[in-house]
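Forum > Structural Biology > Help requests

Title: Can anyone predict the 3D structure of Carnitine 3-dehydrogenase?

Hi all, first post here. I have the sequence for Carnitine 3-dehydrogenase but no way to get a structure on my laptop. I'd be grateful if someone could post the structure tokens.
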Amino acid sequence: MSPRAAILGTCPRAAGWAARLLILGWDVAVPEDLHGPDFDAVLVRARLALPGLYDRALPPEGRLTGLDAMDAATDTVVIVGSFDPAALISVEGSGAPPVLHDANGAPRRLGTVGIEAHDPVYIWPSVTIAPTDAAARDHAATVLTELGMVPDGPPPQPGGDAVLVGILRALRHADCGLGAHLKADELRWPIPAPDWSRPVETARRAVPLDWTDFNGHMTESRYLLAFADATERLMDDLGCTPDYIASGGSFFTAETHIRHLSEILAGEVFHITTHALQSAGAKLHLFHQMWRGETLLATGEHFLLHVDLETRRPGPPKGTVAERMALLGAGHAALAAPAGAGRFVGQRP
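Reply #1:
Sure, ran it for you. Structure tokens for Carnitine 3-dehydrogenase below:
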């Protein structure tokens, strides 16, 4: 069952809170007055921006309801700006959920924990907790973490949504600050074990805003990045982990061929399946297919060699990596060769 939240307030930041939680998979109850074109516009922008902060697809989007659906099962209440105190009657009392008040310039209600988020709240994850007692602060910090937020993190830099997404993704790549939080948040989502008898799903994610070009679709360099990330995911599945690499073995890519078959836009979700055309000895020949639903968007064919990092020469893998490569090779040898494998540049269909 999805977690449930109620958003009280009708200012633009309330729309940002509602959009953030919906996209992160929460069922959200909001005032009737919050519905309308302005809220719809915020939700559109949030759907383009927020999923791109993660390297995996977010949970299925939550359900939007009216405040009449708010009941004792509500997990969290976020008040934004001014509000009607009568709206809290149904959730006050014993066993009531935590109530966070993002005052946004309005007087803060007594009995709530004051917070200050930053616009756009559907992108920037930091939030300041107002002075309160230690127990209330710790509880608020726990709740905010569950909402994907960073208590007392830094404010955003000036710029539009694409700029902020780019900043956060750069911090993520450096495993620094709010970027490190995004990576840790993502680790909470389970990854299924690979089935070596079929093509392995090695990616499922949305296209970030900063992956697009002047044509409005994903730019060609990001296809290579997406396929490289898919290869790294397969490396993890095979046991080529940081510890294994530190022991002296790794894979080097020797050849790559990418075909662009259709286009994909910012915010749309794609997944990649990986077929091993060869997985034996030092040789690993992969064929990635990128899909949007049932539409094939691109393929990436890559030839890798296992290398001894001391000699910098090809050599057979060891231990778990050798065992899993054998399983992968045996499982995929029984599969039909995927269409497009072995093609070269300029070849007619």
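The first strand starts at residue 4 and ends at 8. Residues 232 and 252 are 11 Å apart (CA to CA).
Shout if anything looks off.
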